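Reopening this one. Same input as before:
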Amino acid sequence: MTRFTVNDRPVEYRMDEDTPLLWALRDASNLTGTKYGCGTGDCGACMVEIDGEAIRSCLVTIGELEGRFVTTIEALSRDRSHPVQQAWAAENVPQCGFCQSGMIMAAAVLIKKNPDPSKSDIDEAINNVCRCGTYPRIREAIQRAARLASGDDVLSAAPPPGIDPEDAAKAVPALTPKD
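Same output, byte for byte:
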C-alpha cells in the first residue's frame, strides 16, 4: 500500500505501486480534473503539483510518492478564486478546455516560484500543449494572474458560471478502489 497526501488529505492506495498517479487520482479518488492526454508526458494535460513542483502525473507512479504531497486542480481553490483561475476566465483563455487544468496547475506553480514572470519565463516554464493554440492568451493570463496575486490588478467579474463550487469541491468519501 502506498501512503501520501492528496489535496491536504492523507490517502492510502491499495493499488499496484507501478500505477501512474494519473490513474490513481482519476479512478480511485474520482479527481477527474486531472486529464489524460497523451500518456507519454508530452502534453501536460495531467499536470499536478507534487511538493511544490509541476509534475506530469502520467509519468510518476504512486510507489514513488510515499510521504509526499500532491495538489490537483480540485484543491487549487474551492470557489475558483485562485488568481490563475480568475485570470484564465478574464482573459478568455479556454476554448475546448481539455488542457486547461494542466495549464492552470503549471501556471500556479510558476507564479508561486516566480511572482513576476516575464513572457520568456512563461515560455520556458509552461511547455504544455494547447491544441487550440491559445498561447498568446495563456501568456497574458499568467502575467495577469501574477498581478492579481501581488495585488497590482483587480477583477470585478465573478467566477464563470458552471458547476457550483461547493459541489466541485466536495470531499470524496472513498479514496481507494473497491475490491
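So the earlier flakiness isn't reproducible anymore. For the record, Residues 28 and 177 are 5 Å apart (CA to CA).
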